[in-house]
Fold these 4 entries.
Entry 1:
Amino acid sequence: MFEVILTRRKRFGWRWQVCDQSGKIFADGFERTRPSAKYYGERALFFLLSQAHLRNRSAAASED
């Protein structure tokens, strides 16, 4: 399971991270506004999940 974490940074805006349950960071970044950080965090999560789905799909096709 993955989650998007938003952290407020003084004067710097917002930091976003995509982490798993153990705390391993898969993607991160900084944005000036919270909505922007939320957008990019969720975008990174979607990209991560879509790549995993495509990898599983291509592996299943190569076994046939």
Entry 2:
Amino acid sequence: MAQALRPNTAGSLFATDDRPHPVQDALLAVTLVLGAVSFITAMSHSLHLLSSWTGLVGILTGAYGLWISETTRERSGLILGLGASAIGFFLGMAHGGLFGGLS
């Protein structure tokens, strides 16, 4: 019954190894937000600059987050954000690209 009296000492919602991971959690949050913005704005042709740039930054933060992630929960969220960022980035590129289709 000693385990019933032990307080919850996990420092992070996403840490399953009972240690805090503030950098990984921040990268996870940034990647998810950038992925959502990129994916949602990619549905409009006129917002291709926003969707392509947020998608590119989301891909980079997601890749770095995957490189330093330590738990499965972090990796799962990063994969979702990375996928949404990639879809938004590629649709933004198809609608005009990073620089507005200037040649």
Entry 3:
Amino acid sequence: MNLVLLFKILLVLLLLFVLFNLGRALFIMLRGNSQQSMSQFLGRRVLFSALIIILLLIALGSGLVTPNPRPY
């Protein structure tokens, strides 16, 4: 497999994990009397979102992925 394809798959999986944690926090918030803390899932969401941004910046800096050209 190509390295770029593996990187994109990793980003998609991380984004899905972020959405999963956000959904779990929503259900805990709506249920109200859960033993788990809602902030645990929200903290994971913030951590993985920051990881996604850092990975994108590293990939852009190293030339692994290229942004779309400007329209003008």
Entry 4:
Amino acid sequence: MKKSNSNLLFLAIGAAVGAAAGYVAASDKKEEWLKEINKLVEKVKSNVKGSHSKIEEELEDLVEDED
């Protein structure tokens, strides 16, 4: 991906996160929303860590196969 496309992607993600944060801050159900967001973030972090471990194992296997 070209750098300008990457920058546009990050800009769009940032704008979406900012809009969501503004909406949550203005909402009457702020505490409930924040709990749900924290659950989602923890789930994503767990998935990323699991994927990272799998990729790391596969890379180690590939290196061992090359030797």
